[in-house]
Amino acid sequence: RYFKLANRYSKGQGVQQDDKAAFKWYDLAAKTDHLDAKVKLGRMYEQGKGVKKDVYRASYWYASAAERGHADAQFHQGRLYEQKQGDHRFLHDYKRAVKWYTRAAQQGHNGAQLSLGIMYGNGQGVPQDDKEAVKWYQLAAEQGHAKAQYNLGLMYDSGEGVSQDYKMAVKWYRMAAEQGIAESQLNLGVM
To answer: What is the pTM for the complete model shown?
Structure first.
């Protein structure tokens, strides 16, 4: 019930939208071990919504849910470890980012699958491996993730990690372009 009330305040459903009130109710829900509330608290701390911005507190809440297998929390925890700008450079650790992305990706989280593909493609936290990058792009692309569709198109276009196949490149570029990815639209225009 705390979580539902928090969502109402967060979205302004039936009550005036109020981030501070949403934070209060998410906090109460998280203290009852509500995993989605922990993720919402992490996001609020990360974005400074309803509370002072604090990426370390965000990481605490993400980790609390991630350790219990929450895929979205695992993705966000990985994202914090991947980033190296701003006030949280201390968290920067590609190997830990890969660990959390892998856990979320294995549960089908398409954002984590895309991120893991990028990590493999760039050799960040793992040895560079285009075939492994393609594998993760493919999984995310099949779920409709536009950026993964674009990246998969690039791989087919260039023959990195897969045999060069312009028909497949066009297929994935077209899917991404239909979702508004400008780079895909450009690449289709020059093929």
So the answer is: 0.91
